[in-house]
């Protein structure tokens, strides 16, 4: 049974392009041009994954409203925010509302497909009985690599797929500096340096919200980042 992906995007060219590509990959695609039509459809039947533009026609935060609706209907449905805007305020607001990842419209199609596949993989893994897994423990940090879950002091940390692979790159060799290019390579993404910086800042904030004394992700100016024990 093919997975169903909903795309909510008010730009017809972008909507048609992504519909064609995702259909070509074997997904069933449901495309919507605005929040009301998507909202009505979601109230009747949920997709397996939703890609939502934040600004929808005259509703600058219509995507956030849809995300809230979806989260009330399902806590586990993967949601990707898709936007031309790339700033921390939008991103943090979106992730607090329950989005699983946040991608700007200049990403490559290969990157989007990789993110979708990763989210489906994580959803499938979380739905299966827990078996022996590949875990990394560093002090209070516990990372289950096979299930793509993270906890700090036994409290779950809600990282996006992108953030998870960045963290994984840092903790594989604690104390060793990872350049922005290495983080891009290991998290399977191609973005500019400022986007890498934004991901790191958001990841730090999630840990600090759980533990004000958290200070394990270091910025090594001019070089990159490292996990410091």
From TrEMBL:
Endpoints of the signal sequence: none
Modified residues (4-aspartylphosphate): 53
InterPro entries, alphabetized: CheY-like_superfamily, OmpR/PhoB-type_DNA-bd, Response_regulator, Sig_transdc_resp-reg_C-effctor, Sig_transdc_resp-reg_receiver, WalR-like, WH-like_DNA-bd_sf
DNA-binding region extent: 133-229
OmpR/PhoB-type domain residues: 133-229
Keyword tags: DNA-binding, Phosphoprotein, Transcription, Transcription regulation, Two-component regulatory system
GO molecular function: phosphorelay response regulator activity; transcription cis-regulatory region binding
Biological process terms in GO annotation: regulation of DNA-templated transcription
CC annotations in GO: cytosol; protein-DNA complex
The keyword Plastid appears for this protein: no
PANTHER family: DNA-BINDING DUAL MASTER TRANSCRIPTIONAL REGULATOR RPAA, REGULATOR OF RPOS
Identification of the protein by name: Proteobacterial dedicated sortase system response regulator
Source species: Alteromonas alba
Lineage, uppermost ranks: Bacteria, Pseudomonadati, Pseudomonadota, Gammaproteobacteria, Alteromonadales
Gene: pdsR
